[in-house]
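The passage that follows is intended for readers who have already worked through the single-chain material. We present the inputs for a multi-component assembly, then the predicted structure in tokenized form, and finally a short commentary. You are encouraged to pause after the input and sketch how you expect the pieces to fit together before reading on.
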Amino acid sequence: MWKLLKIELFKIFKRPRTYISFGAIAAMILIIQLGLKFDGKSYLQLLMSGISDSFYVPYDMILNGYLVAFVILNTLLIQVPLLIALVAGDAVAGEANMGTLRLLVTKPVSRTELMLAKFFASVVYTVLLLIWMALLALCLSMLFFGTNDMLVVRNDVMEQISRNDVLWRYIAAFGYASVALSTVAALAFFLSVFAENSIGPIVSTISIVVVLTILSEMKIPLYDDTVKPYLFTSHMLAWKGFFYSKANGNGQAIAGSVENMPAILRSLGVLLAYMIAFVTSAIIVFRRKDILS
Amino acid sequence: MKKKKWFIILLYFFLCVTGFGQDAASLLQKVKEKLGKINDYRATGIMKTEASFLKVPEANVTIYYKRPDKLKIKNEKGISLVPKGALSISLSNLLKGNYTVIDAGARAVQNDKLKIIKLLPLDENPDIVLSTLYIDANKALVTKAITTTKDNGTYEVDLSYGKYIAYALPDKAVFTFNTKDYKLPEGVTFDYDDGTKKKTKSAVSANKGKVEIDYSSYSINQGLPDGVFK
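Having made your guess, compare it with the prediction:
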């Protein structure tokens, strides 16, 4: 299995298209950082408009590496699924397109092992992409903008997290994001089994994620309770839950706390269930598939 | 006889009004003299901020004051959101300028008889429209100040004294202020909806905020550079 995984990883990282994602992420992050470096105050003024009438707002202190990383993740975690689909959607369909799939299944390994190796290789790629993102979004922002307490701006409340209470939240958030993005990889992987070339599963995954993300963000009372909780995209944003802290009776944030950990774990469970369902379905379909390409 | 009676009644009222007026002014003068002992101070303490839309941890703050009206609250280890109008926690700021002193009677609060004095600014276009001071006449200490401003609503400061009573510096200051509604579009914040119904997060009402400072130490008249207030 380990050998199979190494072969699959070799295939992924031999293809130039794999590095498009790393380049695209670096470019997007640097552009956002540059924009915030020169015009971050205007952005903050928009975010702080609700409190600037009542409070003196120290914009220069608020615009620090932790906030910049949060802004970047907020923006990129909507785009990154598209980059994940580029590789995961190619896992099986790419082989079919090149005509190597039939050859591959003649090897003395089970189809299940082969599929698992391909999926885990996509997961490794996803995790590496997230580590790259963490290095650029968090470490580089900390270097460029320094560190201070972090302000998290929510729809109806503004939270302040002490600077020594932030890093573990980022580690947890990146850990969660790796599961969320692996779910997208599993979807692309599942769709890849049905196609003869990779464009179909890549575009289908992107379309599904975009449509479901829009549906997840819409506020329609009837649909909020009936459909939304079951969409995997509704749970992909739960990484933010690590930045919401509990408050004591007087409304002060409690250091080291998470506002609703059971909800985050529930969301994690939903994502894992989706991931297992997609991968299992992909394996079942592939095992029964008459491979002609 | 009738004329004489009216004269006595008018004289009585005149003496009462001017007498009380002088009484209030002299009491205020005593308070000012007490506050006048301080040229500057550097105090440390713990600040708790409370507002319905804020979730902020307790902060260790340093408060710098320099006569006549410089005040700065700094969180040495992080960010402090300081409400506008918090300058009024320094009474010297309230008592500067020209104003008419009006005696507004007295009130008993927890065995202390507090004198109520209103200050009406004489300036043409003042930021502060009216200040009401509750003064413990025996100790010449302001225990409560209510300030109505032209642009930022009404502020209230409650002061409790202890170790630094000789300098009229409080051990605890509770500053209450008005806030405006806070709401950002969900399309801007992309919040994680965990499915739970939102409830009020603070004990204070929706349009009120509160900042509480518990002072632990003061360093008085040691000199402070102006750079601290930038």
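Commentary: The two ends of chain A are 24 Å apart (CA to CA). DSSP finds twelve helices and three strands in chain A. How closely did your sketch match?
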